[in-house]
Amino acid sequence: MIPNAEYRRTPSPQATKSEARLDVANFTFPGIMWHEKQDQENKMKKSSGTPRAKKASVLSSTTIYEGPVFGIRRDEVIEPSGVRTTREVITHPGSVVVLPVLPDGRILLIQQYRHAARQYLWELVAGRIDLGETPKEAAARELIEETGYRAKRFRVFLDVFPTPGFLEERMFILLAEGLTAGEAEPEEDEKIISRVYNRKQLEVMIRTGKLRDAKSITGILYFFRFLSPQ
Question: Is residue 176 assigned to a domain?
């Protein structure tokens, strides 16, 4: 089983070509909360005469491995600081994480075996973005596959790079509301159970280490701190 099993979907041969991957460096999503304010502030900074940041210059790029889930690329670069070096990067088309909130405020989690961690983990619904999908489309698909729930509304509230030291993956965390229960449609290699938790239960799970998945902890705590009514 490949590490981070939520990225299990196998795209077509065309989708595994590097030129067919989602351009995560330039992908924009207009509905991202908080970032709209930041965009306005950035425009003000630019108008005040702040110089634009330099970009890295890629001198050469070699594909070391290209698989159905991720690839490995070796770049020789001159970084904005002027340092000339070689960087090995794991390529990835991007992913979504879904935080489903029921009408009573409880949050839906799933549990599945993660071979890389050698244990079962509780986490939010998550998966890779397939070729041609938007984050909302990917979120809707993953939510149905893993839980059977349909959502009337999806909203991106976080846009992050989970491991920027060597991984190109860009991760969108979405709030799913207006949920309707249905039958799950898991992949053949998925054995998933789902359960709902209230805020107090989730805080205890995080504090005691029962919830250890980083993306889920990030999304849940952000939701509690900035989006959830007290």
Answer: yes
